[in-house]
Amino acid sequence: MDTNTPTTNKQAQGQKSLITGIHMVSVSVRSLPTSRPFYQSVLGLVKTTHDDRVNADVYELPGSTAPLAVHEQQANDGSRPPGTVSGIILYVDDVARAASEIAKHGGRITDPAEKTSTGSVFATVADPEGNEFLLTQK
Predict the structure, then answer these.
(1) CATH topology (fold) of 21-136
(2) Is the per-residue pLDDT at 47 higher than 90?
């Protein structure tokens, strides 16, 4: 992929993008204490905080304002099994509407919009090739 090639900016052409930003990148692990040496020593990432609500270490990603959340999966949290997906979480204005638009245009809704116990709204969608993304609202 040539990252030096200019891309077309839909906003410059007057088209509104369905995606309004990136919230974070997230991965699920079986054990935070076991995973910490890899993310801190091997990858050299700096842990900025620990989110007790979802039992996740949050790391700064160099060159990005979006963080990496390393989430220790709990038995009843409903996320994908550790090691099966890296979560790219994108901001949208309306989760249910965005998921519906994606489904209308060749994608599919993997998990419909749902409000979590923390009050956040998430939906999982997939592109036509099956690559999954999480959608949330600011």
Answers:
(1) 2,3-Dihydroxybiphenyl 1,2-Dioxygenase; domain 1 (3.10.180)
(2) yes
